[in-house]
Amino acid sequence: MIEMKDVHKTYPNGVKAINGIDVKIHQGEFAYIVGPSGAGKSTFIKMMYREEKPSTGTINVNGVNVAKLKSSRVPIFRRNIGVVFQDFKLLPKLTVYENVAFALEAIEEHPEKIKARVLEVLDLVGLKHKIRSLPDELSGGEQQRVSIARSIVNKPKVVIADEPTGNLDPETSWEIMDIFDRINKTGTTILMATHNREIVNTIRKRVIAVENGKIVRDEVRGDYGYES
Ligand SMILES: Nc1ncnc2c1ncn2[C@@H]1O[C@H](COP(=O)(O)OP(=O)(O)OP(=O)(O)O)[C@@H](O)[C@H]1O
Question: Where in this chain does the record put each ABC transporter domain (predicted)?
Fold first, then answer.
């Protein structure tokens, strides 16, 4: 479970990005984070995987108080969280296989186990035939599939995605959403910041709307709610 209590975040330049957020997200939920540009969506998400620290308040992710976590413990904490970005963030000199295996090699898994798991997740995202390709030999949608495979290879309880379809065409975006839906159906919590009105209004999930660093709407099966 993820729980934020009275979370505030002021950046060093004085910008108050988050102004008092209280929220609970239960294991297995799928929630969209929506809101205008600059509302605080990315900051909200970054605090959950400790890319940013809150200025005040508590953030509990799977029993870990993220706000108080020592920097040296952050890499271990992140093994239980998958993160997917708009711009994929793949390692350009590593193959598809190596990009996905990287996270498992870091925890010194047995080589045979690594191979089996990497092939399993690449199969799940439909990319088993591209294991030897480099990221720049792939389409944007394929690169995003690799990044999703990488995010789930450690079997995290939570996958956090910041605008995962932001660089993709509509058809590819639907395919990516289908993968997230399948991951969610295995019991993984998905938290996704998005500007994609059509997706939010079609694949109905919990919608948490953020404006000026506050939650202004939280609906079980909400809609996007903003004019495009
Ligand atoms: N590292 C930073 N230092 C200072 N201010 C920041 C930093 N990152 C974000 N901000 C500011 O914090 C506020 C919230 O930004 P954030 O990126 O969280 O919004 P967002 O809702 O994700 O926006 P978008 O939809 O455009 O990605 C904005 O005013 C932004 O300029």
Answer: 2-228
Distance 142 CA to ligand 1 centre (A): 28
| One-letter identity of residue 196 | N
Task: Report how far ligand 1's centroid is from the alpha carbon of 191 (Å).
Answer: 18
* pLDDT for the residue 228: 54
Give 204 Cα–ligand 1 centroid separation in angstroms.
26
Higher per-residue pLDDT: 226 or 162: 162
When divided into structural domains, the chain yields a total of 1
| Whether the predicted interface score ipTM is above 0.90 | yes
Q: Is residue 43 part of a domain?
A: yes
Question: What CATH number has the domain bearing residue 95?
Answer: 3.40.50.300
Confirm if 73 and 151 have CB atoms less than 8 A apart: no
Q: Which of 7, 13, 37, 43 to mutate to test the pocket of ligand 1 (most atoms within 8 A of CB)?
A: 43
User: Where in the sequence is the domain holding 199, given as residue range(s)?
Assistant: 30-48+75-218
The answer to whether residue 98 sits within a structural domain is yes
Report pLDDT for 107: 74
Of 188, 161, 152, the residue nearest 46 (C-alpha)? 161
Q: What is the mean pLDDT of residues 5-11?
A: 98
> Is 35's C-beta closer than 6 angstroms to any atom of ligand 1?
yes
